[in-house]
Amino acid sequence: MGKQRVSRRQFLNYTITGVGGFMAASMLMPMVRFAIDPVLTASASGDFTATDLKESDLTSEPQRVSFTVPQKDAWYDSEETRIAWVFKDEDGEIVALSPVCKHLGCVVDWNTDKNNPNHFFCNCHNGLYSKNGKNVPNTPPLGPLDVYRVEIGSDGIIKLGAIEANKGV
Ligand code: FES
Q1: Residue from 104, 128, 138 whose mutation best tests the ligand 1 pocket (most atoms within 8 A of CB)
Q2: Tens-digit pLDDT profile for residues 117-130
Q3: Which of 64, 95, 110, 130 is the most exposed place for a label (fewest CB within 10 A)?
């Protein structure tokens, strides 16, 4: 077997390519990791946040509850205060409605329109919703109020999760 000789030029080429590749990878890896970090972070959509309400506090009358959820916007961490209208429906199911009007995003209130008692009312453009969140026809909103996912903690505390479409109307 003949020895395969490596010329000085080939040796330098291999060495420079290897060291250069290693240095490029060392610089690029942190940059790529930094760029895609939000994608790699687990989504918080399945998380529930405890409120001040207990299941035993609930009645058929909607109660306004505010709670704070952690927000992650790329690399910026903050907190957002959210509001829900929580009550038990006629079947005893807990309903937590989002107060965000489906017309142009104002905040609805419960039972504040004297002409339409026991309705959610949006005073921006007189939007009206029945108690289950269904938009009243011939008022500006074109869809029902969204709902929060609801979970009850072992201590009876109401926990609210992601907002989803209101399928109960
Ligand atoms: S934003 Fe609520 S009715 Fe227009």
Answers
A1: 104
A2: 999 999 999 999 99
A3: 64
